[in-house]
Amino acid sequence: MGSMGTGGTAIVLGGGGVLGAVQVGMLRALLEAGVRPDLVLGTSVGAMNGAVLAARPPGQVADRLDALWRSPDAQAVFAAGTVRRLHELARSGVAAHSSAPLRRALTAELDGLRIEDLPVRFECCAAGIEDAAEHWFDRGPVVDAVLASAAVPGLLPPATVDGRQYLDGGLVNSIPLGRAVELGAQRVFVLHVGRVDQPLRPPRRPWEVAMVAFEIARRHRYARDLAAVPDGVEVHVLPAGENAAPLWDSPAALRYRDVGAVGRRIAGAYRASAEYLRAHLPAGDPGRGTP
User: Is this structure's pTM higher than 0.85?
Assistant: First the structure.
């Protein structure tokens, strides 16, 4: 599909599991401000939110995402109890949760849609297992691509698309700012889920080792991409709102199944992002795009 040309606006949505609810509030603020993307890039939960953004009319996006996040299937993605998780792990051998609830939630919203037919150009990132490479889905069924992008190791099973297997895109490109620049975007809005600015400390418990390793990898890639943004490309990193993400090393950080805070996260991110946009994109700003 090549470059998008010059002057385009990209919205980049990073990964982060249930914390991705903040992106619903960010998107509502962006769309109310009149921002219209020419390109949408998503990783993991950002792929889910981004697919709806690329597929639906601007006036429907936030409400549809809000309903999706509050749907029984979406809430069931990580809501299984301990016994069920152990049963699923024994059955699959590789994952504590089934991907069936996520597939149902995505199918209800995006069934039958193909990436190449969406009104707004959309790509999502996954980690290819066979070739150990970053893979960008830019065509094919939307639901299959998003499932591949969101296949969190150990939590959800690898996704198979066209005979190849994939894991969560956050392993290779959690916040794909660099991809937006590579494709020619001149204005980029980055929607991360928070926590990237929180200081890290050495792991003290066995389960913290993987968390620290993943945080180092994702932050290093994002910081490198942010530092490499060329002159003339405008980047806006939207705020996730106060207390959107728990401290990475707190007990709450391990509660990946906590869907109870979805509404609070959406509302907090909306308020923070709306305030940011009022300050940085005043009324009449030609960079807002065409409503």
Answer: yes
